Amino acid sequence: MNDTPGLRALVVHESMFGNTSEVARAVADGLEREGLEVSLTRVRDAAPADSYEFDVLVVGAPTHAFSLSRASTRADAVRQGAPAVSATGPGVREWLAAMTRPAAPRLAAAFDTRVTRVRRVPKTASSRAVRLLRHHGFRVVQRPTGFLVHDMAGPLEDGELVRATDWGRTVGASVRESTHAHG
Ligand SMILES: Cc1cc2nc3c(=O)[nH]c(=O)nc-3n(C[C@H](O)[C@H](O)[C@H](O)COP(=O)(O)O)c2cc1C
To answer: What average pLDDT does the structure give for the chain?
Structure first.
């Protein structure tokens, strides 16, 4: 699989109750299985986006109020039992907004977690993230995808981590193909 050595993926995620972090690790595993070098970081521990070098940026976040979280929804989550530390620092929304370097022709993908069972929800954290990524000049290589949690605090539904690894593999394969096609 490792026929394009040196492709780097940066996986940046936020998580209030830990479910999105679990999914992010599974996505990172899928990317690695496709031969990419993966850096995985929580957004609150991440350096500014402009300081990273990568071939594909993958962002993941819990769906809050049909979108990416804001300081107010993160505070809500803490009131509902999430650890206070999870509300510190920027969320994916703020981290992406602070990006100034022209991104083209870099690649990206986004995922979220959600409780909503409807198969095609138009407004989620990942659909919002994809709009922001495109605004910054990224080419999105894979449809945004949601992974289901049972309840606000989780746990993840059965099979979602396997699906997350598969999704990561699909993203990795798309990056390898794009890089072959354009590089
Ligand atoms: C303030 C708040 C708003 C939320 N809004 C939504 C929503 O609009 N749609 C949805 O499916 N889930 C919603 N949820 C549930 C979250 O998506 C769920 O808590 C999250 O996926 C768990 O991931 P985490 O453990 O990484 O925080 C909301 C949760 C919180 C705390």
So the answer is: 92
Using alpha carbons, select from 130, 149, 121 the residue that is nearest to residue 62: 149
Cα-to-centroid distance, 29 and ligand 1 (Å): 24
Q: What is the pLDDT of residues 154-163, one digit of tens each?
A: 999 999 999 9
DSSP string of 126-183?
HHHHHHHHHHTTPEE-S--EEEEBSSTT--BPTTHHHHHHHHHHHHHHHHHHHHHHH-
The closest of 20, 76, 80 to 44, measured between CA atoms, is 20
Is the shortest distance between the CB of 149 and ligand 1 below 6 Å? yes
pTM for the full predicted model: 0.95
Q: Is the CB of residue 155 below 6 angstroms from any atom belonging to ligand 1?
A: no
Mean pLDDT per segment of 10 residues, for the chain of length 183 residues? Answer: 73 98 98 98 96 95 97 97 94 95 82 85 91 94 96 96 98 92 55
